[in-house]
Amino acid sequence: MRPEALIFDVFGTCVDWRTCIARELAAVLPGADALALADAWRGEYQPAMERIRAGNRDYVALDDLHRENLNLVLGRFGLAVPDRDGLNRAWERLDPWPDVVPGLHDLRGHAIIAPCSNGSIALMTRLARHAGLPWDCILGAEIARDYKPRPGVYLASCAALRLAPESVMMVAAHNDDLEAARAAGLATAFVPRPMEYGPDRQSDLGPAQDWDVVASDFPALSRQLFG
Amino acid sequence: MRPEALIFDVFGTCVDWRTCIARELAAVLPGADALALADAWRGEYQPAMERIRAGNRDYVALDDLHRENLNLVLGRFGLAVPDRDGLNRAWERLDPWPDVVPGLHDLRGHAIIAPCSNGSIALMTRLARHAGLPWDCILGAEIARDYKPRPGVYLASCAALRLAPESVMMVAAHNDDLEAARAAGLATAFVPRPMEYGPDRQSDLGPAQDWDVVASDFPALSRQLFG
């Protein structure tokens, strides 16, 4: 199994969104429960995308969904933030897990690497510049104008590389993402990120299926695939 | 004028397609007039795209147009090549002009950089890996599903970055590309590549309009824009 391209989930798999979003929230809302706010903001992520996946709303970039969800959460918590647009761009300033940048450089020596995220091209581009993620190109939701785990997002990403799905490996810390990628014909690699939701996390602590590769981090993934 | 992003024409502006295509043709067709063949292959480029721009054919990636045009040209010259698909991938193996890689690294320190080419995402991705072009993302024809100089290609590239056209600068060695970009509201930079078509070239030797910037090469462009 030597994939010609690896495509990656980003939020949670490559970057520690929770710590970074909480840090940005704490900076503009001193005294608030920043982790609870971060979890509440991220909690609106799936419902917002689900309306689009279900066909009840045309495709809207994740930047706009994040911005709408921020309004919702600040309202629910009764909080005021002067620069909501600026705060919304916190999603462009997430830090990578420590193994990610060296691991991506290793992998890029052997295969094309690209995000296959629900983030927009703009968001993934700015996040890559912030975090030093050396992507070859940006794939994912925006080129499919739909959201994972809909099969079209994985298939559009393979098609954009002119590769058959079986030549492309999806890398994620979330079993449901890999399940959808496998159903679309892609190879799969699970890299656990047990701290994504903090120490109390219950889900995705290990592989739920016999994924093609299970690796402890990105450099280990590169060694397992390419020696 | 400090653009937030610079988007680039690639064939001719960033890479020396003619010398490289001729070299690959010479390798598989010893004795043939490789430069004439390269010019003939490239000569079918605009007519093939024109059918799509005019709405007479659905969008087809440039990889496929190149492959069709190769058949056409080999037929016209009465030449046989065993591996036409492999030869067609010569477009993924073009070398950059000597100033391009250092200049792009300079520019990338100040702004988002991306190709806005008629090449597909797959072609631009593999070419960037071959030539060492440090793009932040791949924009251009495929995300618009149309071909330059149609305005939608420039506008889709700006929209994918969530930037207004006036914050984005189109960089090209071809006046007609800049004319279309300016008409779409983008800033413009002309970088002459007088050797693109060899020593006998007549067109695009200098700027045809008062482009926002005229620079002798990419490092000079970076100095003029960002000091």
UniProtKB/TrEMBL annotation, chains A, B:
The keyword Hydrolase applies. Keywords: Hydrolase. The keyword Nucleotide-binding does not apply. It comes from Halovulum dunhuangense. Pfam families: Hydrolase (PF00702). This is (S)-2-haloacid dehalogenase. Catalyzes the hydrolytic dehalogenation of small (S)-2-haloalkanoic acids to yield the corresponding (R)-2-hydroxyalkanoic acids. Belongs to the HAD-like hydrolase superfamily. S-2-haloalkanoic acid dehalogenase family. It catalyses: an (S)-2-haloacid + H2O = a (2R)-2-hydroxycarboxylate + a halide anion + H(+). One of its GO terms (molecular function) is (S)-2-haloacid dehalogenase activity. It is an enzyme of class 3 (hydrolase). Its EC number is 3.8.1.2. It comes from the Bacteria.
